[in-house]
Write a structure and sequence with these properties.
The chain folds into five domains: 116 residues, PriA, 3(prime) DNA-binding domain (GIY-YIG endonuclease); 179 residues, Rossmann fold, CATH 3.40.50.300; 180 residues, 3-Layer(aba) Sandwich (Rossmann fold), CATH 3.40.50.300; 51 residues, no CATH class; 93 residues, 2-Layer Sandwich (Alpha-Beta Plaits). It is of the alpha/beta class and 675 residues long. It is built from 19 helices and 30 strands. Bound molecules: adenosine-5'-diphosphate and zinc ion (ZN) (2 copies). One zinc ion (ZN) binds next to loops.
Length: 675
C-alpha cells in the first residue's frame, strides 16, 4: 500500500498561508505544479509549494484536490523563491504574488478542452520579418570595457550601465546578450523596458541582432491568449529572449542567464496598484537567486541605485560620450521669463532660436509636462476657478473638444458658456498646456508644420507610431509634447530643444520631484544633436542659478546625483532610510484619519512589546492630493534605517491591521515612490 501524499497549496487570498490538501489517488504531484482545490464553496487554482507524507489534520477534515494540473513542467525552484521573497517583502500571501503573476489561462480553472487549448498555445512563433538592417559596429573603448566586465563576471554581479542618451547603451546590451548565447545557446535573457509602445525601435533592433532566436514580449497591451502563449514559450524554454514591461518580472524563465533593465530609473517599474512591487528591485533579487549578472542601464540612474554604486554594492560601467562619430550634446542656455520680454509665453531668445532653426530646415522639439489647453479656467470678475467636483484639484480645459477634464478621476463636462457663480461670459484660460502651445506656434510660425504628441493626441491605436514616423520622415518642423517626445526615439534632424514650465517641478514639496525633473531634462536633451548637427537646448526657468542647471550644462549626472545624495544623507531620508506607507481612503477625511490613528496606536504597541526600537511612526496626514474621485485620502508613514527590521515589523503590523473591523479601504506600499 502506498502512503497518501499531502501537498501544501498557495492560493490567491490575502494573508492566507499555504493550505494542506491530500493528493488524489493515482496522481503524483510535484512542487511547482498547479492544482484545482476546493476552498469553501469555491474551486480555485493553487500552486503546490510543498509535499509531505504526513499531516496533523484529522482524517475526517482532510480534503483532496480536485485536479492536478501537470501537463506543463512544474514551476522552478528559483521562481518559487522569487515569488516567496516578493510576498514576504511586499506584505502579501505567497499565492497572491505567485498565482496573480500567471496569465489568466494558467490561473483560472481549466475550461472544457483545456488540453487542446494548451496545444494551441504551443504553436511555434512565426519569424517576424527583420525590418532593420544590421551593420556590425566596432565598439568604442568604453563600450568594450563594459561588455568585457559583464563577460568576465561570475555568479551574482549587479552592474550599472551609465551613459547619456545615444552613448551606445543598447548596442552594449546586445553584445552582452550575444556573449551569453555564445557560451550557452539555450540561455534565456530577460530584457525589461519601461513602456513597450514607446520602444518599437528597440524591439526591432533586438530582432535584427538575433534573427535566429525566439523573441517574445509581454506587456499590458497583449490579449490574454497572446500573453499565455508568450508565457508558456518562456516556461518551456522555447523562447530565448523576453522583452517586457514590469509584469514580465514574474515570468517563468528556467534558463535565465542575464537580466537587463533599460531606463532603470523609470517610474513605471514600480507598480501603483495591487502588489506594489518594484520590477527593478526584483530584477536584482532574481539575479541574486540565480547567481547571474544584472545590468541596470540609464542616463540618470535612480538615487537608490546610485547610492549602491557609491557604497560599492553595484559596479559602475560608464559610457562617457555619444557613440556616433560627430554627434554632440546640446549647449544649454537658461532664460528667465521674468527678466526677458516674452511673446505669448515665449522669451524672445527662444523665439529667435526657433526662427533660425526653421530657416536652416532643421527640427525643433518643445517640451512641457502638461497636456490640455490650459490647466485651469477662471472668471476674472469673481475669481471662480474650474475645480473638479470630485477631486481636490482643477479640471483642465481641452479646447479642441470644448471640454473640462479632470486628469485625476476622468470627470469631464462641456465647458461652461458663462461663469457658474456670477454669469460673466468671458472665462479666461490660465497657464498653458500642450494644446495652447501648439496653437501659439501656429500663430507665430504659420508656415511651420507643427505636430503635438501627448496622451490626448495618441489615443488611437498606432497614432503614436505614425506620429513618430512623420517626424523621422522629416514631415514635421516643430514637435511639441509631454514626456512622450523625450523617450527613446532617434530623431535625425533635431537641433533645438526648448523646455517650458519646468519650474513647478523645481519648487515642489516632493523631495523626489527635482530628481525627476533632472531625468526629464537629460532625456529631452538627448533628443537633439544625435547625428552631427550642433545643437542647443534652451530652458525657460526662474531658477537658472540652481545646481540642477550647472550639472545639466555639463551633462554631468554623477555631480548632480552626489549632490542630491549629500542632501538626502544630511536629511536622513531615502535611500538612507527605508519606508512604508499606509494609505487609507473613505467618504470623509476624518474617517480615513481616524483609521490611521488607530493603525498608529497598533504600531506603537507592537514596537513597545516586541522591542522594535529603530522604527519611526509619523502622524497620519491627508495626502497631498487629498480628494480623488470622491474619496478622501490619508496616509501614515513608517521609517527605519534597517530594511530588515522594517520588513519584520511590517509583517506583524499588517496582521494586526487585518483584524481591524472597518469600512475604510486601506493599502500598504513598501518603498513608496512618493510620500
Ligand atoms: P543609447 O541606447 O545609449 O541611447 P544606442 O545604442 O541607441 O544608444 O546608440 C546610439 C546610436 O549610436 C545608434 O544609432 C547606434 O547605432 C550608434 N552606435 C552605438 N555604438 C556605436 C559605435 N561603437 N560606433 C558607431 N555608432 C554606434
Ligand atoms: Zn464669475
Ligand atoms: Zn476629478
Amino acid at each position: 500500500m502506498t502512503h497518501p501524499i499531502f501537498v501544501s497549496v498557495a492560493l490567491d487570498v490575502p494573508l492566507l498561508p499555504p493550505l494542506t490538501y491530500k493528493a488524489a489517488d493515482g496522481t503524483s504531484p510535484k512542487v511547482g505544479d498547479r492544482c484545482v482545490v476546493p476552498l469553501g464553496k469555491r474551486q480555485e487554482v493553487g500552486l503546490i509549494v510543498g509535499l509531505s507524507d504526513q499531516t496533523d489534520i484529522p482524517a475526517e477534515k482532510q480534503k483532496t484536490y480536485i485536479r492536478l494540473l501537470n501537463e506543463t513542467e512544474p514551476l522552478g525552484t528559483t521562481w518559487l523563491k522569487l515569488t516567496k521573497f516578493s510576498a514576504d517583502y511586499y506584505q502579501h500571501s505567497w499565492g497572491e504574488v505567485a498565482i496573480a503573476g500567471l496569465p489568466s489561462f494558467f490561473r483560472s480553472k481549466p475550461r472544457p478542452r483545456y488540453l487542446q487549448s494548451l496545444e494551441r498555445l504551443r504553436k511555434p512563433f512565426a519569424k517576424k520579418k527583420v525590418t532593420e538592417q544590421q551593420t556590425e559596429l566596432s565598439l568604442n573603448d568604453d563600450q568594450r570595457q563594459a561588455v568585457e566586465a559583464v563577460k568576465n563576471s561570475h555568479g551574482f554581479a549587479p552592474f550599472v550601465l551609465h551613459g547619456v542618451t545615444g552613448s551606445g547603451k543598447t548596442e552594449v546590451y546586445l553584445r552582452m546578450m550575444e556573449n551569453v548565447f555564445q557560451e550557452k545557446p539555450q540561455a534565456q535573457i530577460l530584457f525589461l523596458v519601461p513602456e513597450i509602445n514607446l520602444t518599437p525601435q528597440l524591439e526591432a533592433r533586438v530582432r535584427a541582432h538575433f534573427p535566429d532566436k525566439v523573441i517574445v514580449s509581454m506587456h499590458s497591451g497583449l490579449a490574454n491568449g497572446e500573453r499565455a502563449r508568450a508565457w508558456l514559450a518562456c516556461h518551456e524554454k522555447r523562447a530565448q529572449i523576453l522583452i517586457g514591461t514590469r509584469m514580465a518580472i514574474f515570468a517563468s524563465l528556467p534558463n535565465l542567464a542575464l537580466v537587463v533593465v533599460d531606463e532603470e530609473h523609470d517610474l513605471s517599474y514600480k507598480s501603483g496598484e495591487g502588489i506594489r512591487y518594484s520590477a527593478r528591485d526584483l530584477a536584482v533579487k532574481w539575479a541574486q537567486l540565480k547567481s547571474i549578472a544584472v545590468v541596470l542601464g540609464s542616463a540618470t540612474p535612480s538615487l537608490e541605485t546610485w547610492s549602491k554604486v557609491r557604497s560599492g554594492h553595484y559596479r559602475l560601467l560608464t559610457l562617457s560620450k555619444r557613440a556616433v562619430p560627430g554627434a554632440c550634446l546640446p549647449a544649454l542656455t537658461v532664460v528667465n521669463p521674468r527678466e526677458q520680454k516674452t511673446v505669448k509665453g515665449f522669451c524672445t531668445e527662444v523665439i529667435d532660436a526657433i526662427s533660425e532653426t526653421l530657416e536652416k530646415k532643421q527640427q525643433v522639439i518643445i517640451f512641457l509636462n502638461r497636456r490640455g489647453y490650459a490647466p485651469v479656467l477662471t472668471c476674472p470678475t469673481c475669481g471662480w476657478l474650474s475645480k473638479c467636483p470630485h477631486c481636490s484639484t482643477y479640471a483642465v480645459y481641452h479646447k479642441y473638444n470644448g471640454r473640462l477634464v479632470c486628469h485625476h478621476c476622468g470627470w469631464s463636462s462641456p465647458v461652461y458658456r458663462c461663469c457658474p457663480d456670477c454669469g460673466n461670459v468671458d472665462l479666461i484660460p490660465m497657464g498653458a498646456g500642450t494644446q495652447r502651445i501648439e496653437e501659439t506656434l501656429g500663430q507665430l510660425w504659420p508656415q511651420a508644420r507643427v505636430l503635438r504628441i501627448d496622451r490626448d493626441s495618441t489615443l488611437r491605436k498606432n497614432a503614436a507610431k505614425e506620429a513618430f514616423e512623420a517626424v523621422h520622415a522629416g514631415e514635421v518642423d516643430i514637435l511639441v509634447g509631454t514626456q512622450m517626445v523625450a523617450k527613446g526615439h532617434d530623431f535625425q534632424r533635431v537641433s533645438l530643444v526648448v523646455v517650458l514650465n519646468i519650474d513647478a517641478q523645481l519648487v515642489s514639496a516632493n523631495p523626489r520631484s527635482e530628481e525627476r525633473a533632472f531625468a526629464n531634462l537629460m532625456q529631452v536633451a538627448g533628443r537633439a544633436g544625435r547625428f552631427g548637427l550642433p545643437a542647443r537646448m534652451i530652458v525657460q526657468s526662474r531658477f537658472g542659478d540652481r545646481e540642477i542647471f550647472a550639472a545639466l550644462a555639463q551633462q554631468n549626472y554623477p555631480r548632480y546625483a552626489d549632490y542630491l545624495l549629500g542632501i538626502r544623507k544630511a536629511e536622513w531620508s531615502v535611500p538612507y532610510v527605508s519606508q512604508a506607507l499606509l494609505m487609507a481612503d473613505a467618504t470623509t477625511i476624518d474617517k480615513a484619519l481616524g483609521f490611521l490613528e488607530h493603525a498608529k496606536a497598533l504600531a506603537e504597541n507592537i514596537i513597545e512589546e516586541e522591542h522594535f526600537e529603530g522604527i519611526v511612526v509619523y502622524d497620519p496626514i491627508p495626502m497631498a492630493l487629498m480628494k480623488v474621485a470622491d474619496k478622501e485620502r490619508g496616509q501614515l508613514l513608517v521609517e527605519s534605517g534597517s530594511k530588515l527590521l522594517l520588513t519584520k515589523f511590517l509583517r506583524q503590523w499588517y496582521r494586526s491591521l487585518c483584524s481591524v473591523k472597518t469600512t475604510v479601504h486601506w493599502t500598504m506600499d513598501v518603498d513608496p515612490a512618493d510620500v
